[in-house]
Amino acid sequence: MTGEVLFLGGILNFTDPLFHWQLYIWSWIIASILMVICWLAWRYGPWKAYQALHGLYHAFKASSNAAFTSGLNLYFELISERDAKCIFNYAKSEFEFEPSKIPMFIRRLFFNYATAFLDDIGWAKALVYKFGKRNMDVEIAKKLQNYEWEESPSVTIGGIRTDIILDADAWTIKNSPQHKAIEAYCYDWNETHPEDQIHSYSKLQRLMYEGIINSPLGVKTHVMVPWVRIDSAFPIAIEDNEQAGAYRQVAEDMANSEQNALSKYYLPILGGSFGLAGFILLIRFITFSMAHH
């Protein structure tokens, strides 16, 4: 009779005197803790440090434009085209899938919501978009609006075309009274005008200017921007501003240098933790199989 073959002579089966757990259990616990630490380090390290570019990342992920938007304070923020132009959030709307052999609850669980609005998304892309969390609102809005879509990119950032938008009446702020009034008004309009729907702020604004539709309650068609704010945002004497920007950039580089140096170790540690956990599981499975044959 052949004795049981133990991995590393059974060293991982050693039981600690305090909790009476074997070392391979502690290995799983340590690997899990390391994965959580690496994720938190990445989440609140490099990812948070580049928060100003998150809109550009989401625009790249959705294959759409980005946008510099600002309110009356003329403080510009870089956001995705979906946040800057789309009135509706289609992922939260009550949509129905086309008849299919796949049960409805499975389609809602595994398929991207855009498959209910767009016809050219195959099952493979639907799964990739679902678990890749790709936002398809821009494509949906374009189709429902008969591809009547206004865009005038002024710059290109990281290969992403970027528009400049002045939102002087808080239309794009999702919790603002203006946005809620616009959303309710456009929903009613689309129900009664299926061939001429409104899904973007630019089309709504154009129809309001042309007098084709009334302004939603509490929504302004014209907003005066005080000249002092324009002068503060775009001063005539720019030498001091340029120098101040250079000083700020140097300070930010110094603050982020140590953090960026450590960031290159996050992914290797995270991958190594997964690999170690999988290796331990594989060895335990092999030794268990050999012991019972």
How many structural units, i.e. domains?
2
User: In sequence order, what are the helices and strands, one letter per element?
Assistant: HHEEHHHHEEHHHHH
Kindly report the spatial arrangement of strands forming the biggest sheet.
2-1-4-3
Overall mean pLDDT score? 80
SS-derived structural category: alpha+beta
Summed up, the helix count is: 11
Find the count of extended strands (DSSP E, 2+ residues). Answer: 4
Beta-sheet strand percentage? 5-15%
**Fraction of helical residues:** 40-55%
Q: Main β-sheet: number of strands, strand sense, barrel status?
A: 4 strands, mixed
Structure description:
By secondary structure, the protein is of the alpha+beta class. It folds into 2 domains: 7-49 and 260-291; 52-234, no CATH class. Helix content is 50%, strand content 6%. It has 11 helices and 4 strands, in the order ααββααααββααααα. A 4-stranded mixed β-sheet has the order 2-1-4-3. A hairpin with a 2-residue loop joins strand 3 and strand 4 (160-166).
What's the arrangement of secondary structure elements?
Layout: H1 23-49, H2 54-61, E1 66-70, E2 77-80, H3 81-85, H4 104-110, H5 123-131, H6 137-144, E3 155-157, E4 160-166, H7 177-192, H8 201-209, H9 227-233, H10 239-263, H11 266-291
Parallel strand pairs: 1-4
Antiparallel strand pairs: 1-2, 3-4
Give me some keywords for this one.
11 helices, flat, single chain, 6% strand, alpha+beta, 2 domains, 293 residues, 4-stranded mixed β-sheet
Structure at a glance:
Helix content is 50%, strand content 6%. The chain is of the alpha+beta class and 293 residues long.
